[in-house]
Specification:
Largest sheet: 6 strands, mixed
Structural class: alpha/beta
CATH architecture of the largest domain: 3-Layer(aba) Sandwich
Radius of gyration: 21 Å
Shape: globular
Helix content: 40-55%
Number of domains: 2
CATH superfamily of the largest domain: Class I glutamine amidotransferase (GATase) domain
Order of helices and strands: EHEEEHEHEHEHEEEHHHHHHHHH
CATH class of the largest domain: Alpha Beta
Oligomer: single chain
Distance between the termini: 22 Å
Strand order of the largest sheet: 2-1-5-6-10-9
Number of helices: 14
Strand content: 5-15%
Amino acid sequence: MPAERLHRVAVLVLEGAKPLDVGIPAQVFTTRSSMPYEVRVCGPAPGLVTGGDGLSYHVAHGLSTLDWADIVFIPGYRFPDREDPPPAVVDALLAAHAAGKRLAAISTGAFALAATGLLDGKRATTHWHYTRQLALKHPRVRVDENVLFVDEGSVLTSAGAASGIDLCLHILRGDLGMAASNHAARRLVAAPYRSGGQAQYVPRSVPEPPGSRFAATREWALHRLDKPLTLEILARHAAVSPRTFSRRFLEDTGYTPMQWVLRARIDMARELLELSGRSVEQIAADVGMGTGSNLRLHFQRLLGTTPSQYRRTFGGQILANPGAPATVDLPPGETG
């Protein structure tokens, strides 16, 4: 993909860094022909950084990499509630933010970001096991324990481990659009979209993987977004009462059923705007939004832009995928 210059990504490895948290942004934004990014892994100083879980990292770059970067990722690390990161790290993060860089924390990396004061008065999250400690250690941070990630513009935080993928794909969607994000998700064999508002941990009397309870109904709905989808229709497919379905669906996903359907329709509209030449009116019918004016209304409310403006920004940005053309799921009988 042509670009004036590559987007610059720094991954800041602190003492006790968790291997998965370090690897996620490094791999999502890996430098390759289909991704206009350059990644550098850095530490408080070049050299060996002792990590967590029996691994250590030999980093080639020091804190000056934060001056070079456009976005800085702060992976999670062990025992974040015991002490703050070194003053030099805090100062470097503050300077990077003041220079207009985005700072994104994965899991317990939120503690390092909170130590700068940049999360004061803002929503933030971290791994559910540490949300109470984060709230106690940094009482000015509005800790939300029931989300996968929080985007506050220049500062972003995510929950534990795999939710770092969701955060990175969210950033990628904002930078390059839905098609690029879906391309990266396919490469990672990851879910292409999990909303930041989805619950990261819901205590239950019988443990169950989050979101799996009505997975079949959600999958069924995704293949008939152009058809009527009411609470009653969804509950009937799930073989439970509408009241039970609504309550449990909210616990699993963080959305009411109809909020989820609306966002699924908007996401499908985004892909069609990027990858097809269909009109806004045609796309509105394709995704079950009825009219173009209805699509425009909800597009503006959820994304802060219009379908036409979105298409001008992201239309035509189809990433090359050797051996497999870019595709988008359409309702049966439709073509792009």
